[in-house]
Specification:
Radius of gyration: 24 Å
Helix content: 40-55%
Number of domains: 3
Order of helices and strands: EHEHHEHEHEHHHHHHHHHHHHHHHHHHH
CATH architecture of the largest domain: Orthogonal Bundle
Strand order of the largest sheet: 3-2-1-4-5
Number of helices: 24
Bound molecules: flavin-adenine dinucleotide
Number of strands: 5
CATH superfamily of the largest domain: DNA Cyclobutane Dipyrimidine Photolyase, subunit A, domain 3
Amino acid sequence: MEKISLVWLKRDLRCEDHEPLSEAIKSGLPILLLFVFEPSLIAAPQSDSRHWRFVLQSIQDMNKTLFPFGGKVTTLFGEVPKIIEHLTEKYDIRSVYSHQETGIKITYDRDKFVSTLLKDKSIPWFEFSQQGVERGRKNRERWNNYWFAHVKSKIQNPDFLSASFIQIEKSIESKFDSKPFLKSLGSANPLMQPGGTLNGKKYLESFFKDRVKNYSRHISKPELSRRSCSRLSPYFAWGCLSIRQVFQHAEVEVTKGKNLQAIANFQSRLHWHCHFIQKFEMECSMEFGSINRGFEKFQNKANPIVIEAWEKGETGIPIVDACMRCLIQTGYLNFRMRAMLVSFLTHHLSQYWKVGSNHLARMFLDFEPGIHYPQLQMQAGVTGINTVRIYNPIKQSQDHDPDGIFIKKWVPELSEIPSNLIHKPWELSEMEQQLFRVKIGLNYPKPIVSIEMEGALARESIWAAQKDPEVLKEAKRILAKHTNSKRWS
Ligand SMILES: Cc1cc2nc3c(=O)[nH]c(=O)nc-3n(C[C@H](O)[C@H](O)[C@H](O)COP(=O)(O)OP(=O)(O)OC[C@H]3O[C@@H](n4cnc5c(N)ncnc54)[C@H](O)[C@@H]3O)c2cc1C
């Protein structure tokens, strides 16, 4: 049997700064570069075809880079342990190389299973950490130092000139044929960002060339932030770019002496990215319940009617509906509007954060479990350690979309309403509704909730919950485990 090294790709779909690939090449053995489309993961409630289309585009992009070196990513469809079993019947796998994944329970269980399987077969599995996220940490002591050391360390570019690749045996390829699944994904949606390192780099370059100048000024604006934010999140989430690469790119930009505050703000967000993933790595039960367990008893009964209205963008609150419809269509929303959607669901509609979690995960093209769960819970106010912000959607709308440009784009029913009236269309008189060709309750819903009343009630119940002894006890535990008194040490 042919001796090979197996490089198992997951959320690290790039050819640059790739330690597992780099180390596998150093082994000197021919490499099988593998990505597996896993039915169990595809069926997960957090998964959407937009994610898999992005993955496919990213693999196609990798293949362009690998082609001159005779390389190609093999894609198979099936469960990883079963595929490994079959591979070991055909190849003498000397080692497996991959990045550690801070993922959902399905990938965590799969990794444990694979680990046992490889141990049984005496195949060493080299797993590399990335993003400055450290496995097995008990607290945050000196984590900032660890992170900075990582992002400033040497980029691990594979030496493809000394690599040799194998193409997988036809019998295995046809047994785990990925083509039917890939075909089922259909064509790309032009409203969504396309996958791949090349596209990621285009966003990176255009950001620093021009867009960065408005980064801090427009960051909260739903329309303007689409241009002024970096838009790198899906490229990080699926690994088309590494955090280290981008951090170092930003360091070079700093030396040019322009937009320094904006670049510093951007770099601090790269730090947040990894900070949240580290938190989830250390407490992955957050996928299923509040990090502060004291809050679990305060859950309200789910109301499917309001949840459906929220999911579809039919709540009757224009900015909320515009945000949700835009997210459904494009897979992207800026931070503040994501936070507002969660705040509206959990505070104004009094729903437990979990009822909206999978929908948002499916809609975010950049779904990253390590950011998603901690952010969702922070915005829902169930950590007990963060200041709770209840975003008033009308104020957000007036402050950040004053002319209603974003609203009119995504809620065309309201497009004829003048900007000063668009934030609260339920206040329009019958005559105004006729004039602006909208009938509230008929072609645009009446608000499903009173913002002022529910906001006040939510504030009261959050304050009361925060005094609960179990919440306070948990808050102490969370502070000790997940925070570092010396920030940016
Ligand atoms: C409820 C909720 C869920 C979220 N889920 C995700 C998610 O699944 N995946 C995801 O990448 N981001 C998530 N975020 C964080 C944030 O909204 C996005 O990272 C950001 O909007 C992406 O846009 P950008 O790349 O243009 O960001 P930029 O502002 O250009 O920032 C650069 C990078 O820094 C990181 N970053 C920026 N803001 C944050 C933040 N607040 N927390 C952590 N990292 C940040 C991202 O990697 C981002 O690409 C979530 C926020 C909220 C409120």
